[in-house]
Design a protein that fits this description.
The complex is a heterodimer of chains A (258) and B (413). Chain A has 258 residues and is α/β, with parallel strands linked by helices. Chain A folds into two domains: 1-71 and 159-258, Rossmann fold (3-Layer(aba) Sandwich); 81-155, no CATH class. Chain A has helices at 45-52, 74-79, 96-106, 111-125, 140-152, 170-185, 197-203, 221-228, 233-240, 244-253, and strands spanning 2-13, 17-29, 34-38, 60-65, 68-69, 81-85, 158-162, 189-194, 206-211, 214-219. In chain A, the strands form two sheets. A six-stranded mixed beta sheet of chain A has the order 6-7-8-3-9-10, with helices on both faces. Chain A is globular, with a radius of gyration of 19 Å. The termini of chain A are far apart. Chain B has two domains: 3-46 and 177-410, no CATH class; 56-164, abc type-2 transporter like domain (abc type-2 transporter like fold, 3-Layer(aba) Sandwich). Chain B has 16 helices and four strands. Chain B has helices at residues 3-18, 21-55, 69-77, 90-95, 109-114, 130-157, 178-186, 189-216, 218-223, 229-266, 275-286, 294-321, 325-347, 363-373, 379-404, 407-410; strands spanning 58-63, 81-84, 101-104, 122-124. The two termini of chain B are 29 Å apart. Classes of the chains: A alpha/beta (258), B mainly alpha (413).
């Protein structure tokens, strides 16, 4: 379970002054569901997920994950969360086995437990061939598998995915999507951020559209289709953020486009 | 603080660093090789050059002296000199290193000596040029001995004994033990080297473990783990400290081995005044290899510890601020000068330890090492230096922890 309540995050920027990256966001993700956070680049997806993973502290508002408060029980939250992002890389000079074992230890697992879980994960993800090779020699697919095993070693109840398919080839992206679905089927709470409309349509049970730091729409795909009277996710998205002009204005404001 | 987690982080960083070529070079290769290179490379070249200069037959140009055949014959007979015919632009020839020294004998030199006059012999040489300097000394020795002979002759003519002008004899006796002499000679040099290696040994792992991790994207992965951040910082800090101390330790061991081999290698032929061979010469005189007080080395190691902590924490904090390895390098490279400056000041003769200087980081270490290696123990200063170094180290470590907890530093965009 993830419960975000009025989360707000501000940053100081030399040129633009105080920026509100996340503005009063509230939502709930339930176990056995995939919550899709859809937004353009710079909309505030990564910041929201970093707030949930306790990597950042909110300016105001609160979040509870797996029954723990993100502000006061940050270590407990991280112990029950698996965080996988395009920006969470692997140690190139360690082997896959060493990497996964390291994160098992950091999660306070006993050596025997780590060994047992590692074997299970390696079988499940088909990693046996490259388990004892260094990560810097891996293909993207092998890296992703290792990263997945790394996030799962402590069997977290909550999974946070921040654009996990970004820059991946089709086959690797598909295997990630399959893995995300598996997590849901095992009853985990999953939150998944992306800017790819088709991914949201395919896998998310509940969709939250984030724009300019605000959650502008939320609901199942069917509910959103009904509300915006569109079937195509992209059209729904553009309508939800207030039209193309609003999208362009927001992108200009953050400096993504001139 | 959870030592289990700190150990986990530390062991991982150790394994990771030992697989990093840059860290290995700065931690193991450089400190092991630098002393032998200095001792044998520079030492060999220096002794060779000096020996050559000393054994060279000095080309001397004689100006005048036509009416002083005795002196000219004596000069000619001396195997140390080779007389060259006089030319007008002798000064140019000396500058061009074709002639080492020119001797100008005044007209009627010998007659003047016999008659009791005070003629002037002018020697022309090139100041600062090694071979010209040696040549000058040889010529000077020649004329000094001529002077003494003349004095004896004049005294004898007047029926006086040589004791008239030699009322007493001066005898010089060295009371400094060999290690004291060695300590003074290399006491400044050893801490200088140790301070720099202590810094460079910590430099690469500090950058790799912070800015390097950010650049490669593993920092965020690490921060997702439930380990409290202070444990991560301490684990990383211990790794940087390990690298720094390993560098220092290896350099000290390498220094000891080089000195021992140096004594064997240069021992017999070290007669020059050059710094390196002079040391070895003294060591040979001392009869034993440790020309520096071994207890002093333990003292140096004890005082280096807080300074290594200071460097490790400071480098960690600074490179943590950088987004990439390159950015970290541009912050840290100028710091080398800041570190070398006080170490060099400690090398200067005449800069002595006092209460104020004992509070200046790095310089205090440099100065006290010089004293300890020559067997002088000012316990009050040593306590003051150890105490102040610990305070600086604690401040730096606190700073590193603070930086690690700042999300604008950790997630600098």
């Amino acid at each position: 379970m993830i419960e975000a309540r009025n989360l707000t995050k501000t940053f100081k920027d030399k040129k633009r002054g105080i920026i509100t990256a996340v503005n009063d966001i509230s939502f709930t993700c339930r176990p056995g569901q995939i919550y899709g956070l859809l937004g353009a680049n710079g909309a505030g997806k990564t910041t929201t997920l970093r707030l949930l993973a306790t990597l950042l502290q909110p300016a105001s508002g609160s979040a509870r994950l797996a029954g723990f408060d993100a502000a006061t029980e940050a270590n407990q939250v991280r112990a029950h969360v698996g965080f996988l992002a395009a920006s969470t890389a692997l140690y190139g000079r360690l082997t896959a086995r060493e990497t996964i074992t390291y994160f098992g230890r950091l999660n306070g697992l006993a050596a025997a437990t780590i060994k047992e879980r590692l074997k299970g994960l390696a079988d499940e993800l088909d990693m046996r061939d490259f388990l004892d090779r260094r990560c810097d020699k891996f293909s993207t697919g092998m890296k992703q598998k290792t990263s997945i095993a790394r996030t799962l070693i402590h069997d977290p109840a909550v999974m946070i995915f921040d654009e996990p398919t970004l820059g991946l080839d089709v086959m690797t992206a598909r295997s990630i999507v399959k893995f995300v679905r598996d997590c849901r089927n095992r009853g985990k709470t999953v939150i998944y951020s992306t800017h790819v409309m088709s991914e949201v349509e395919k896998i998310c049970d509940v969709i939250g559209i984030i724009h300019d730091g605000r959650l502008v729409a939320e609901g199942t795909l069917a509910e959103l289709r009904q509300r915006y009277e569109e079937t195509d996710m992209e059209e729904i998205f553009v309508k939800a953020v207030g039209g193309e002009a609003a999208l362009v204005a927001a992108l200009k404001n953050q400096g993504t486009i001139p | 603080m959870n030592w289990q987690n700190i150990l986990t982080v530390y062991l991982k960083e150790l394994k990771d660093s030992l697989r990093d070529r840059r860290t290995l070079i700065s931690m193991i290769v450089v400190p092991t090789l630098i002393m032998p290179i200095i001792m044998f490379g520079v030492g060999t070249v220096m002794t060779k050059v000096v020996r050559q200069a000393r054994s060279e037959i000095v080309s001397v140009m004689l100006l005048g002296g036509a009416d002083s055949p005795g002196v000219v014959a004596a000069l000619k007979a001396d195997k140390k000199f080779r007389l060259v015919p006089a030319v007008a632009d002798y000064q140019q020839l000396i500058s061009d290193k074709k002639v080492r020294v020119a001797v100008e004998l005044p007209a009627g030199f010998e007659a003047s000596l016999k008659g009791g006059g005070v003629p002037t012999v002018s020697l022309y040489y090139y100041e600062g040029e090694l071979k010209s300097g040696f040549g000058l000394k040889a010529v000077q020795d020649f004329f000094t001995s001529l002077k003494e002979k003349t004095i004896e002759t004049r005294l004898a003519e007047r029926g006086l004994s040589a004791a008239v002008i030699k009322p007493f004899v001066i005898r010089k006796q060295n009371v400094a033990p060999p290690e004291k002499v060695g300590g003074n000679a290399i006491g400044g040099f050893v801490p200088y080297l140790i301070i720099i290696l202590c810094f460079t040994g910590a430099m690469y792992p500090a950058m790799d473990l912070t800015a390097g991790e950010k650049e490669r994207g593993t920092m965020e992965t690490l921060l997702c783990s439930p380990v409290h951040r202070i444990n991560i910082v301490v684990g990383k800090f211990l790794m940087v400290l390990t690298a720094s101390l390993t560098t220092v330790l290896l350099s000290i061991v390498s220094m000891g081995v080089s000195a021992a081999l140096g004594v064997m290698y240069f021992g017999g032929k070290a007669t020059s005044q050059s710094a390196t061979s002079a040391l070895v010469g003294q060591a040979a005189e001392g009869g034993s290899i440790p020309l520096i007080d071994p207890v002093g080395l333990i003292g140096v190691a004890a005082l280096v510890l807080p300074v290594a902590v200071f460097f490790a924490a400071l480098l960690l904090a600074i490179s943590l601020f950088a987004k990439s390895y390159k950015e970290a390098q541009s912050y840290i490279s100028p710091l080398i000068v800041v570190v070398i400056m006080p170490a060099v000041i400690g090398l200067l003769p005449g800069v002595e330890l006092n209460a104020k200087l004992a509070l200046v980081p790095i310089l205090n270490l440099s100065l006290v090492c010089k004293e300890m290696l020559s067997g002088v123990w000012h316990w009050d200063y040593i306590a003051l230096i150890f105490g102040s170094s610990c305070v600086y180290a604690a401040i730096a470590l606190g700073f590193a922890v603070k930086m690690f907890n700042r999300e604008d530093v950790m997630f600098r965009a």
